[in-house]
Design brief:
Largest sheet: 3 strands, antiparallel
Oligomer: single chain
Order of helices and strands: HEEHHEHHH
Strand content: 5-15%
Strand order of the largest sheet: 1-2-3
Shape: elongated
Helix content: 40-55%
Radius of gyration: 19 Å
Number of helices: 6
Amino acid sequence: MAVILSREAILAAPVATTEVEVPEWGGSVLIRALSAKSRVLLLDAIYANEAAHAAWKEDQAKPEGERAGLERVDLYDHSILTVIFGIVDEAGEQMFSLADYERFAGLDYNTIVHLWSAMNNHSRRDPEAEKKSSASTRKGGSSSASRSRSAKR
C-alpha cells in the first residue's frame, strides 16, 4: 500500500532535476519541470508579449499620420522561454530570467530545441523517451518543438 503523504512532506518535496549534455556549449545543464510559479511567470510573459505585439500591429495598420509610433514587438518563441525558465543551478534555483531572452534567441536553435525536448520528456518522467528524443535530435531527426510560436526576429 502506498504511503499517504502529509502536508509537510508534500510541501518539502524536492523538484526533480535531470542533467542534459549540451556538447555545443561544452558541458551539461540541469533542467527541471516548470514549477507552478515558473509556469505562471512564463504565461504572464507570453500574454504580455502577445498583447504588445497586437498593439504594435494595430498601430501599424493605421495611416502613417495617425500612428502612435509604438516600437516593433516580435512574438516570443515558446521553446526559448521554456528553456529559460527550466534551466536550474545545482540548488534547483532558476538560473535565467526573461531579461535573458535576447541572448538565448541568439543561440543555436537546434540546441534550444534539444533542451526543450529534454524538458518535455523530463516533465513526463519518462527517461526512455528522453534518451530516444536526444538521440533522434542529435542525428538530425525532427522534433515536436517545431510547433512553437514564431521566433523573435
